[in-house]
Design goal:
Number of domains: 1
Oligomer: single chain
Number of helices: 13
Helix content: 55-70%
Strand content: under 5%
Number of strands: 2
Length: 316
């Protein structure tokens, strides 16, 4: 039984021509990279300093497991299934992916999908909700653009007609219901690591630390990795394929974001379930979808042909 999402219409090309953007100065790129990597380095240092005191193997496993589960909810569920319909799956899997994506605390399914579809339709143009390229050409303007693309856009009102991007999904009762239950999934996503911490350590302290590491810290990590696709991956990286925007492949977030960092590949072929299109481009999300297809949990998995990829490849 499939969810029918594979029949929705999403396009591989934009209907408008994009104006070329100026290449950001190297210092802006370095500031962007430092702003993203330094907090992660601080977290690693905190883990090392707290090891054996307020962090151990139990809480590392809880943090890693919750990160992987909720990141999969975003990458495979919210993004590749609900937004781009790159494969079909069963109703129970639809519900599970919607719940896991909601636990990442990035908004209800319908809201997330609408904003992302708007981004693709207007990528790096005036109506793109989170482009870093619309704030001028000076260094300070570009830094403002990076802040906006990373998380500043979340503090601004959404477009009034955003619902028009999800008319198809709103016809699906299950997806509507899962989206409405967003607060429940958020609470569950915080309760599960707390319960695991308490059960695995048989202590209230373990429960608290499970909540902190597997809940709050995990949300922080998933958020900033996801937001870095909007900011870093439109500034720093390679562009092997033609696309009507500044999307780029970034190896760091190709790994951390489970394949989402191959962003130029994705913008060149939005409906592809596979973002890492070359053998060395690790795409954990696609490997999971591929595995699902082998056991009957995913059907009609969409991947561009070699001919289509060659036609869009940048010369040289």
């Amino acid at each position: 039984m499939t969810n029918g999402l594979g029949n929705l219409q999403t396009t591989d090309v934009h209907d408008h021509a994009a104006e070329p953007h100026l290449e950001p100065p190297i210092r802006v790129k370095l500031i962007n990279l430092a702003a993203v990597l330094i907090p992660f380095a601080g977290l690693v240092a905190a883990i090392a300093l707290l090891w054996g005191v307020a962090f151990d193997w139990v809480h590392l496993l809880i943090l890693g497991g919750m990160y992987l589960a909720t990141a999969i909810g975003i990458t495979i569920g919210y993004h590749r299934l609900f937004t781009h319909c790159s494969f079909k799956t069963s109703r129970p899997v639809v519900a599970i992916l919607a719940a896991l994506g909601s636990m990442a605390v990035e908004g209800p399914v319908l809201q997330w999908v609408a904003a992302h579809r708007q981004h693709h339709q207007h990528s790096d143009q005036d109506d793109d909700p989170h482009s870093p390229h619309l704030h001028g050409t000076g260094v300070w303007s570009m830094i403002r653009g990076l802040w906006h693309a990373h998380m500043g856009w979340l503090l601004r009102p959404s477009a009034k007609d955003l619902a028009r991007y999800t008319r198809d999904l709103r016809q699906d009762k299950l997806i509507r219901r899962m989206s409405q239950l967003f607060p429940l999934w958020v609470l569950l996503g915080l309760a599960i690591p707390a319960a695991l911490g308490g059960l695995l350590t048989l202590s209230w302290t373990g429960m608290l630390l499970g909540f902190i590491w597997g809940g709050l810290v995990r949300v922080f990590l998933v958020h900033h990795v996801t937001w870095s696709i909007n900011s870093v991956c439109h500034i720093w990286g390679s562009r092997p394929f033609r696309s009507h925007d500044e999307s780029r492949n970034n190896v760091i977030f190709g790994v951390l974001a489970l394949g989402e960092g191959w962003h130029n590949n994705h913008h060149a072929f939005p409906t592809s379930a596979r973002h890492g299109l070359r053998w060395w481009e690790l795409d954990v999300s696609y490997l999971i979808i591929w595995g699902m297809s082998k056991i009957g949990l995913a059907q009609d998995v969409r991947v561009p042909s070699k001919e289509r990829m060659q036609a869009k490849r940048v010369a040289g």
